[in-house]
Write a structure and sequence with these properties.
With about 170 residues, this protein is of the alpha+beta class. The protein contains three helices and eleven strands, in the order αββββββββββαβα.
Length: about 170
């Protein structure tokens, strides 16, 4: 009788361990992703660049972002000439001027909420791990985008894929 009871306890422990491991596998964040309005993009190097044509001076602007401690940080900006919205360097920042561009680096500004309005003329491009993505080809011009960095669990990742498939099926 004691051995049957012992076997039942062992089976229960094995089942409980299997359930706990499954929960850990499903819900432990392991997939680093950049989400743009819930669309998922791989981001291995933990950095990305958003470039666009400035609305006033028509020059190219490139904003460089890095991921640090799960936060999006604006590290530097590069532009052709000053115009509305282009910042002046602060004391702690480094300013570089070349024949081709001006750059403010050492910005190190944490961006709590990164929103971007897809312009009709700006031609916003995001570069992730060497891949250039024209945002107006994926999102409607004059729409607002939320860009966020997340480390997704397997469950969250599968859920996003299923939602994407459901939306494609509905179209």
């Amino acid at each position: 009788m004691y051995s049957n009871y012992s076997k039942k306890i062992k089976k229960t422990i094995i089942r409980l361990t299997a359930v706990i491991l499954l929960i850990i596998i499903l819900f432990k964040p392991i997939f680093p992703k950049l989400l743009i309005n819930k669309k998922v993009f791989n981001i291995k190097n933990k950095e990305f660049v958003i470039s666009y044509t400035h609305s006033v001076n028509k020059g190219l602007v490139r904003d460089y972002y890095i991921i640090k401690d799960k936060n999006i940080i604006l590290s530097k900006t590069r532009f052709v000439s000053y115009g509305a919205g282009i910042p002046e360097p602060e004391e702690t920042q480094n300013f570089i001027r070349t024949d081709d561009y001006m750059e403010i680096n050492d910005i190190n500004k944490k961006i709590d909420n990164l929103y971007l309005f897809v312009g009709t003329i700006a031609n916003h491009i995001i570069e992730i791990d060497g891949e250039k993505i024209e945002l107006k080809k994926i999102f409607k011009p004059q729409s607002s985008l939320k860009i966020e960095y997340k480390i997704l669990s397997l469950f969250e990742y599968i859920k996003l894929i299923i939602n994407k498939l459901n939306k494609m099926e509905a179209q």
